[in-house]
Amino acid sequence: MTEITEPDVTIDSKDATCPGPLMDLIGKVKTLDQGTVVELQTTERNSTTDVPEWLEKAGHDLLEIEEHDDHWNIYIEVN
């Protein structure tokens, strides 16, 4: 990870099928304050494109996508 502070919130959506991880993220973001850093953990490859597209439309910031052997961590800052 590159210079990202520890996430304030972690959403474990591993093994959820599309669009589950995105829906989990949207539901959680609605409850969070501006500036909150969220880590979305997912095994769904489509999340690496779906989440950034939604973030752009919703006005939140994509901080980083970290690829691991069996999942991705997507870091978001709520605006």
TrEMBL record:
Signal peptide: none annotated. PANTHER family: SULFUR CARRIER PROTEIN YEDF-RELATED (PTHR33279). CDD domains: SirA_YedF_YeeD. Residues 10-77 form the UPF0033 domain. This is Sulfurtransferase TusA family protein. InterPro entries: TusA-like, TusA-like_sf. Pfam families: TusA. It comes from the Archaea. Belongs to the sulfur carrier protein TusA family.
